[in-house]
Amino acid sequence: MNLTNAERAEVLTQALPYIKRYNGEIVVIKYGGNAMINEQLKQQVMEDIVLLWLIGVKVVLVHGGGPEISTLMDKLGKKPEFVDGLRVTDKETVDIVQMVLAGKVNKTLVNLLEMKGGKAMGISGMDGCLIEAEIKDERLGYVGRITNVNIEPISDLLEKGYIPVVSTLGCDKQGNAYNINGDTAAAYIAGALGAERLIMMTDIDGILRDRHDPSTLIPKVTLKGIEKLCEEGVISGGMIPKVDCCVEAIHKGVKNVIIMDGRVPHSILMEILTDEGAGTMVSADE
Fold first, then answer.
1. If both were cysteines, with which of 27, 157, 275, 278 could 270 make a disulfide (CB 3.0 to 4.6 Å apart)?
2. Which candidate in 32, 65, 66, 206 is catalytic?
3. Using CA atoms, how far apart are residues 110 and 158, in angstroms rounded to an integer?
4. Would you state the pLDDT for residue 16?
5. Which candidate in 32, 33, 118, 279 is catalytic?
6. Which of 30, 58, 136, 252 is catalytic?
7. Do residues 278 and 271 make contact, with C-beta atoms less than 8 angstroms apart?
8. Is 224 a catalytic residue?
């Protein structure tokens, strides 16, 4: 799209109230899935994050890396197994998860943010015992249930002006590493930080009344509304655990949670810096 200089100036002027509102506030972004696989989208997401950081928003990027984990497992001749949508993680698999998440994916994102002009630092949930965990279900092996979040490592990085980039691993007092669900980790981290907003980037538009029709997007919903939508069967299947994480985040003190399509270019900026926003906003009951 070719904008004139006057149109560019108008866009910036319209964003001003939002820039003032979010300056100094904490926004946690859960990033993964298709937006991470598509290289062009990845570049745009990093640009959005750096722009928010430059206007004074304290951005925390929490990422997964499921497809990359499966790819490395295939290369090593290890077949991925899933139970109820969660990856079965034996001792060998948790080593692979650690290599991919805390290594390749984390450092690639840090490097991209730096290349875009940001100041980023990568950590895993094992650093500083950020995410403490225990076995969630014996059938799943080293898949963790979060027992505690020690938020100081992230708070310290924010205080020093960094964009923390967090890979979703956990640990226990015995030194075991755990694979942690990215949405759950983001909810707990956002809650511990008292974040203004948690943005969950997914591969759907948000909560839809008819999941086959994007025009039925529900732009705003409260916790009571969520209960009703669950009872009506509007929220079902794979959307249930995502919505559960939104509810968890609100209960832990996050002001608003956004479920939105991370495949839409610059969807983060549309959400934070425009009237219309993007996706579905979940908030506490009024």
1. 278
2. 66
3. 15
4. 85
5. 33
6. 30
7. yes
8. no
Residue-range domains of the chain with CATH = 23-283 (3.40.1160.10)
Model pLDDT, residue 202: 83
Let me know if 33 is a catalytic residue: yes
Whether 233 is catalytic? no
pLDDT at 3: 62
Series of mean pLDDT values for 10-residue runs along the chain (286 residues): 72 81 92 78 92 95 89 89 82 92 94 96 96 93 94 96 96 94 94 93 83 84 88 80 88 90 84 79 83
Q: What pLDDT, on a 0 to 100 scale, did the predictor assign at position 34?
A: 61
Q: At what angle do helices 239-251 and 223-231 cross, to 10 degrees?
A: 160
Residue 214: both structure tokens together: 């994007």
- CA atoms within 13 Å, Cβ hemisphere of 11: 9
DSSP 50: H
* Active-site entry in 58, 116, 136, 242: 242
To which residue do tokens 């694979």 refer? 179
Q: Any catalytic annotation for residue 66?
A: yes
Q: CA 134 → CA 125, 158, 171, distances in Å?
A: 13, 27, 8
Record the tokens describing residue 80, joined without a space.
């991925």
pLDDT at 2: 65
